[in-house]
Amino acid sequence: MSTASAVAAHAAASGGAFLAVNTFAEWRDAARELLRAGVPPEAVTWSRPGAADLFSGAPAAAAPADNGTHPKHTTAAPHIPRSLMEMLQRAACFRDPDRWAFLYRVVWRWTQGEHDVQSPADPDGGRLHGMVKAVRREEHDMHAYIRFRERPVDAGAPRFVAWFEPRHDVLPQVAEHFVARMGKVSWMIATPDASVLWDGQTLHNTGPLMSSAADLDDAGEALWLTYYRSIFNPARVNAQLMQSHIPARFWKNLPEGAIVPSLVSQAELGARKIGQVQAVGAKRGATTIPISAEKAQPDREQPSKLDECRRCELWQFATQAVPGEGTKRAPIMIVGEQPGDQEDLAGKPFVGPAGKLLDQVFAQAEVDRKAIYLTNAVKHFKWEPRGKRRLHKTPAQREVEACHYWLEKELATVKPKVIVAMGATALKSVMRKGTVALKDFVGKPVRVDGAWVVTIYHPSYVLRVPDEASKHEAFSVMVKGLKLAHELIERPDPA
Fold this sequence. Notes:
Elements: H1 3-14, E1 17-20, H2 24-37, E2 44-47, H3 82-91, H4 99-111, H5 123-145, E3 149-150, E4 160-163, H6 171-182, E5 187-190, E6 195-198, E7 203-206, H7 221-231, H8 239-245, H9 248-251, H10 260-281, H11 293-296, E8 332-336, H12 341-346, H13 353-365, E9 372-376, E10 383-386, E11 389-392, H14 397-414, E12 418-422, H15 424-431, E13 446-448, E14 451-456, H16 459-464, H17 468-488
Parallel strand pairs: 1-2, 4-5, 8-9, 8-12, 12-14
Antiparallel strand pairs: 3-4, 5-6, 6-7, 10-11, 13-14
Helix pairs in contact: 1-2, 3-5, 13-17, 14-15
């Protein structure tokens, strides 16, 4: 029996265990055995190897000898989805004394059926998302602010050396980034806790080899500082903006950090005015050219995958983008407003309460859901917190317009003969109008870009209607609308 298995068996028998892990792989193996043994989070104490704790003088219960008396565990290893496992692996890099205990609590809750633990609205889910975001930010900062210094040629020594002080344990994945970027050139990245060295073929991991950036010396640094002084424009200097773009903790290890304070001081003492003289004297007057804000935007490469979409801010708060679903050449396309809470977690449209009601509408209208393409005008869930719940919030017009890029792609691929717009938001997106009155289009099909457009209520509206009579009437409108859409498939173009 492995150490992790023995510890899990001991925990199951005695009601407690002490585990010392140092890497995510060690934690994963131990957590798997603990879950198979049904050991709850409160029964396990996690620590790093060699770390002192309050009961360090007491005998540890973490590694009992395997004499064959421990019960054999036959429970199958729990299944953790890949998306959650990737989040756990990244969150494991977050420096926090209780990170291993917290990660085990997350997987324990997931295996107990509490799948909302992956949601940002859940307290543990929110903390998990925050840890992942902080680790990704540290990786980005390390990519951006590492400065390699070239060393004198010496047999066996790396050609380039850099010093960095990361807040989280991101050195291994950052090292892989520079392996791909720097090819066969040898280099080393040193931090206060560990170092990595690339000899051109193999990546070596060691303990700390330097104490600060002062141990570095670069003969070419003087040339770089001369160039930096020459491009520094005192007329456009903005000290507050410089500090917001590059946090203060990075400046001390940047070569230009030694001369920036004096350059900023000179700008404030008069160099700014001198720097403006030549540019102001060369002006021949100014002409105001009227142009819309939309046309003034620079041309940017459009995203090719929905998960990469950053056209509005909703992606930051949603679990994932929810694409359309259904037959790619369906004659009918149904467009809703946006994913709900359950759709956001599942990654599929209309699987929550609104989807169940829509299935009832399909049944009454005798329409096969599998023959229809289902999508939404907005692909990310927009919500606002209300206690532990995430409540739906209507998308703004700018968010509808930003997401119309994806609806156009779906329309071009599916080429539906009939589009069913459910609700005002969907109708605005389909009609490409900022304001529309839903009552003017319900039950009145119109032609838009060669397709029929039928307007019905959104299922969530039917669920919100307080009295049964209004609920029945709204449900009836949806059924009649779907029947009309099915009839319009064969109706010829009026033109």
